[in-house]
Prior knowledge:
Elements: H1 2-10, H2 42-53, H3 56-83, H4 94-126, H5 129-134, H6 139-144, H7 146-171, E1 179-182, E2 185-188, H8 193-202, H9 204-211, H10 218-239, H11 248-276, H12 279-299, H13 306-309, H14 313-319, H15 323-329, E3 335-336, E4 339-340, H16 350-374
Antiparallel strand pairs: 1-2, 3-4
Helix pairs in contact: 2-7, 3-4, 3-7, 4-7, 4-11, 4-12, 7-11, 8-10, 11-12, 11-16, 12-14, 14-16
Amino acid sequence: MTDDLHAAVAGPAPAPGPPAFRGRWRIRGRVPGGTASWLPTWDLIATKQLELRRRRGLMVVVVLLTVGLPVLVLGLRLLFHAVDPRSYGPAGSPTVFAALCNPMAEFGFIIAATLGASAGTTDLVAGVFRHLVITGRSRLSLYLARIPAGLSIVLPLVAVAFLFVCLVTDFAGTPPATSINYNGLVVPVHLNETQLKNFLLKNSRQADMAFGVGPASAQAGTRIIDRDLPAIYGDYLDAEPAATYPPDNEMAKIGLWIELEVAIGFLVGLGLGSLTGQRTLSTILMIVLEIIITPILVRVAIPYFLDGQRLIVGVAMDQLRPAGLAGSLGGGGRVLFGARGVLQIPPMPTWAMVAVIVGWIVVWSVAGAWRMATRDA
Length: 377
């Protein structure tokens, strides 16, 4: 009787305790007295992606400027060739391929930056940032969730657009050339620097007419070719894209380079948007960087500011531009790191180029995450 009385006074049994932990990090939610995990959950990533996809106007612009541009251009060329094949050539050609891939990279960077700036400010614009913080979620996880959410939207679209360009180029283009005619010298396509050197030594008289390196003797010819080979190989690569399709491995390099350009645009736009809290301002700054500042710094060597120019990510990415694209831009770029940039300034070392690209990604990501972690709710 006494035990029943005590049980009635004590009330119902307490609710089950807090959810269990797994190692140091909690799986989901926030535990009283615990610490919120900085790792974003799959549900949080899916929610942030849904928030971006619900911005219908932004999504329409993203699709039109990534997939719509090559589909429109190549679709019209396919239509014209089908209607009047005598007047209009095949839809695919080396010139069209390069002319589409370069704008895809430029527009892709701007569109990705716009999407990143929107992702970095969406909670502030919607007025829900305070409510998300009150729930106890880690602010770092709120920022990190935006990275896979945004990249999962823009990278597949760019991949689809580039795949469409490659398919039209391969299956609806002119027959691929096996050689190019350079100043009267017929040279096989897709030679590397060593293969081109051996070809010139075997065809010394024709090489003298085309490049001015014909030897008076075999030994003298070897010295002349060794001295001038970088310039000759550069001229050869300049002439090659206009007449030949990039090989499959070069197409893969071009696709990866475009994807890297787009990913950098998104990550920098996300960090800048989170840092400023203003989507419009961040988008304008990214457009100015891509369209105005980068082309000037790539083509004009500013005295006593060369190292400063090399700190711009667009300069490093232009140095990394694959050979199949750089030749179509003209300007006599240099063969660097397996690529051919369009730089008119002295190139930076390979390690410095990689450091600039990685540095922009890390610095802007850290700056954006820091601002979100310290912003007043």
